[in-house]
Specification:
It contains seven helices and ten strands. By secondary structure, the chain is an alpha+beta fold. It has two domains: 140 residues, N-terminal domain of MutM-like DNA repair proteins; 127 residues, Helicase, Ruva Protein, domain 3 (Orthogonal Bundle). The strands form three sheets. It has a four-stranded antiparallel sheet. Strands 2-3-4-8 form a four-stranded antiparallel sheet, with helices on one face. A two-stranded antiparallel ribbon has the order 9-10. A hairpin with a 2-residue loop joins strand 2 and strand 3. Helix 1 runs parallel beside helix 7 and helix 6 crosses helix 7. The radius of gyration is 20 Å and the shape is elongated.
């Protein structure tokens, strides 16, 4: 599933190509996504202009004059830009070609700049929700989310107040979207390694120094991943078909039984299951 860095990169790619463009037609070939696309969807979007594109957690938010389109990519969803003339993804020396399976192209948004925004989703776990408001605090999917990791409010005080009466382990806390939104399994593993914290540690057992290290590691890992285009373990591509390369820099994720990435450490990467998710850590330098 695309996590915060991947969705942020899609947002930035789309902003360059479709912001201020107008939707002149919508073609829907399969309404059966996670939530069924309503019959009114097409007519409600024709002649609407993209005024702003933002991200909240793992959600993309498209702003129109009096409406918001909320998009979640699910496990395998992709938003792609295609040329109207030949239905091919833009090709430059900077972007990889992407061989799409066309039967999984479920929605086409035809724009007035001769581009087409295409939603492709093999597993169909993604969804589109259109709201007749421009206020995100009215949207139930967004109201329950915690702070953004880059927020200045994500600090020691916030951490201590949130965990005061909680006993969950630090791995599950970071996965909790009501605490910090946008983190998923890959990045939580990497953050904990950088912070030298073992994933099974109790969240209310961390020292102030460890909390500070955890917060700074979260921001560093996410910023670095965004700069590298995110990770592309399975299905993720950015809006122009380019894969991310952050997976080449993984410290622990998927590296079980390998030597620790830290030169000064003689430990091995171990794999355990926490809440039925694979968790990776160094048995020496993470305590």
């Amino acid at each position: 599933m695309p996590e915060l860095p991947e969705v942020e990169i899609v947002k930035r790619s789309l902003f360059k190509m479709i912001n201020k463009a107008k939707i002149i037609d919508v073609k829907i070939y399969n309404r059966n996504l996670r939530y069924k696309i309503p019959l009114t969807f097409r007519q409600s979007l024709i002649d609407e202009k993209f005024l702003k594109i933002s991200r909240r957690s793992k959600y993309l938010i498209f702003y129109f004059r009096k409406k918001i389109l909320l998009v979640h990519l699910g496990m395998s969803g992709k938003l792609l830009i295609m040329r109207e003339s030949d239905n091919k993804i833009f090709k430059t020396s900077f972007y990889y070609d992407l061989n799409l399976i066309h039967k999984h192209n479920h929605i086409y948004f035809k724009l007035n700049n001769n581009l087409v925004l295409v939603y492709n989703d093999v597993r169909r776990f993604g969804f589109f929700k259109l709201y007749n408001t421009t206020k995100t605090d009215k949207i139930k999917f967004l109201k329950k989310l915690g702070l953004e990791p880059f927020s200045k409010k994500f600090n020691v005080k916030y951490f201590k107040e949130f965990t005061q009466k909680r006993k969950k382990n630090i791995k599950n806390l970071l996965m909790d979207q009501s605490f910090i939104s946008g983190l998923g399994n890959i990045y939580v593993n990497e953050v904990l390694f950088m912070a030298r914290i073992r994933p099974i540690r109790s969240c209310n057992d961390l020292s102030q120094h460890e909390i500070k290290k955890l917060i700074s590691s979260t921001k560093k890992i996410l910023k670095f991943s965004i700069s590298k285009g995110g990770s592309s373990l399975k299905d993720f591509k950015n809006a122009l078909g380019k894969s991310g390369v952050f997976q080449q820099f993984f410290y622990v994720y998927g590296r079980q039984n390998k030597n620790c990435s830290r030169i000064s450490c003689k430990g091995k990467i171990k794999k355990i299951l926490i809440a039925n998710r694979s968790s990776f850590y160094c048995n020496k330098c993470q305590s």
